[in-house]
Amino acid sequence: MEYRFSVSDVVSAFHCPLQFYFRKKGIKAYFRYGNVHIGSFVHNVLSVFAKEIEKPTLFNEKREGYIERKLYQAFLSVSISKHYNVDFEEGWRYLKSIGAYFENLAYKKSIPEIKEMFLLSEESFLIRLAGAYISGRFDLLLDIGNDIRIIDYKTRGKEIDIDAVQIAIYRYAVEKIYKKKASPYVLYIGDGEISEEYFSDEEYTELMKQINKEIRDMKDFLEGNKIPLPTPERSLCRYCSIQYHCEELIKKFFT
Ligand code: SF4
What we know:
Blueprint: E1 4-6, H1 7-15, H2 17-24, H3 36-52, H4 66-81, H5 88-108, H6 114-117, E2 118-129, E3 132-144, E4 147-154, H7 164-178, E5 181-188, E6 195-198, H8 201-223, H9 246-254
Parallel strand pairs: 1-3, 4-5
Antiparallel strand pairs: 2-3, 3-4, 5-6
Residues 16, 18-19, 29, 230-231, 236-237, 240, 242-243, 246 line the site of iron/sulfur cluster.
């Protein structure tokens, strides 16, 4: 049988096979953290910004403030086009930090035209991995000379450690699709301050072995060949959307 999983399914199974199992039984089970509303607002503004960034503009003194101006236009257009239940001041603070990050990166890497740097934004992908189809969506891919930088934004601090699996799959997907080396970065922008996390080649190789194994296990859970156990990291349960119903669901599905 052909299986198709989302990247979120793999993240779920990797950290709690039981949560993954419930998801596949139609229960809304996932890890939730950070401010989801502001996260979606910031993602939408950045998507508009990346798609509308203007045609060739030389990256010199005249361009000073260019990214911030374009970001602000995107911010205004998204703010008035949809109803968001967010603190716009906070949203703009996040966006300004990201703009400064792009600006700094372009200087550091001597990229002459900003537009050239933005490869893809909010783009879906579908790849084969461990005998299954895996679908996902990149936040942003930046073309930086010899490699592709994968940017994933998180409008929160790094309070829980579950981002590595997602970003490793993104790296695998980029290298498969573009046949180019990819460098995965997660940008944590909690409180308007950016902190960047990079995952090394060693971490990636090790993680991909475990992810391949997990995807095979996911098929076994669904086919009844293996029992999906609860997470061994019980501290994760407080971020789980079904934390108060877990026991009752275990009884329902397993007795
Ligand atoms: S409450 Fe904990 S054990 Fe239960 S599904 Fe959620 S993460 Fe897994």
